[in-house]
Amino acid sequence: MKESDADAYNCPHLLVYDWEGNPVAHCLLSKSLYGFSLGNGMLYGLSREVNPIVYVYSLKELLQTK
Fold first, then answer.
1. Contact in structure between 37 and 19 (CB atoms under 8 Å)
2. Radius of gyration in angstroms for the set of CA atoms belonging to the chain, rounded to a whole number
3. If residue 27 lies in a helix (H) or strand (E), which one and from where to where?
4. Which residues pair with 21 in a beta bridge?
5. pTM to 2 decimals?
6. Secondary structure (3-state) at 53
7. Which of 29, 37, 40, 65 has the highest CB neighbour count under 10 A?
């Protein structure tokens, strides 16, 4: 992947769908994430920087604002 193509994968939007594929929530995160993982009620997001940073969000707090 070219460096310029990688920016297409940075995004501050978290879209949540139910098991049938219907959208149920849209969260705008404070940071753009390159990748993420879920565990223990938390979202762990990886930034795309020279020295990557892991941002941690509470799913409960993110979804309560919707």
1. no
2. 13
3. strand 23-33
4. none
5. 0.73
6. coil
7. 29
